[in-house]
């Protein structure tokens, strides 16, 4: 059996190439995707969102495997329409979401956004973020149980459409990360809410470094509600399909039946709570880096040096923005976080403060030289005014993200 440390290293290698997959443009339809060629699957236009009708539930399949199921505007609109209709349907008790291929969802299609920026289509970018963030809030306030099966890559917006829901099932194939600082962006899609509520300062660590957690680690820190081996996923899906209920405790019992007990490896960041909290509890990115350098010098800990390399690769502006975003998220609700992140995302795509998003996507996804020329080039060149502007509306006339007032009853 594969050891956890080996699984973790494989997940890191796996995730290092996930962003590059967005460029591939192979078209997969329902008829040529054998893993989804079930007669009960109904495709939307372009087959990017599939729906499986069960007796008392609906299963959504994100179906852009060549793009690791990355979300675009049309998918967001389709998902909103489906979820709203199901929420009002008394014959539907709960909803399941999963992905096709080797990913659950690698997030928003950032190359799609890059292309809109290149064409000057800022309105299209606004619609993209507005549509997806609104859907994420819908998941977070959904009045029926929601189960996300995270059997594969789950990053950025993939976390945004799953973590706010009732149940998240991670597996031994799950790779979770919020790697936005590596492309000159900020952890969005509600990340400032769910990362800020993790134990200690793990959220700051994940937001700044873009490090990857596996399924066991997700369950250990609370990002996942259940952990199961991939071999159990078909049985989980069959169990859910046969449920006739809208009771979350009944869904919970089904999931618990296939839960596997496992523990993070000794090399896991979950095992480094003391060092992580000591270094990432500081008020500024500069102080965090100083603490890591001091710790590395005192202990000769290679982990600290690895973390420093990640921080020194990332966009300096993104690091400062991400740290502030997580810290603010601790004192905000999900809707407040999404409204703030919407402002931040528009600032990033317009590029008035910095063109780091455009440059980061170029360096990592398009030209793949992995040598971004960040602007500002270093932390010392990032001013407080730049960071403050990142959190401000584009203009006094720019509308904020408008989310409905609705709260889901907490499931305990």
TrEMBL record:
Belongs to the enoyl-CoA hydratase/isomerase family. Pathway: Amino-acid degradation; L-valine degradation. Coiled coil: none annotated. CDD domains: crotonase-like. This is 3-hydroxyisobutyryl-CoA hydrolase. It catalyses: 3-hydroxy-2-methylpropanoyl-CoA + H2O = 3-hydroxy-2-methylpropanoate + CoA + H(+). Keywords: Hydrolase. Pfam families: ECH_2. Hydrolyzes 3-hydroxyisobutyryl-CoA (HIBYL-CoA), a saline catabolite. Has high activity toward isobutyryl-CoA. Could be an isobutyryl-CoA dehydrogenase that functions in valine catabolism. GO terms for molecular function: 3-hydroxyisobutyryl-CoA hydrolase activity. It is an enzyme of class 3 (hydrolase). It comes from the Eukaryota. InterPro entries: ClpP/crotonase-like_dom_sf, ECH_dom, HIBYL-CoA-H. Its EC number is 3.1.2.4. Residues 58-391 form the Enoyl-CoA hydratase/isomerase domain. One of its GO terms (biological process) is L-valine catabolic process.
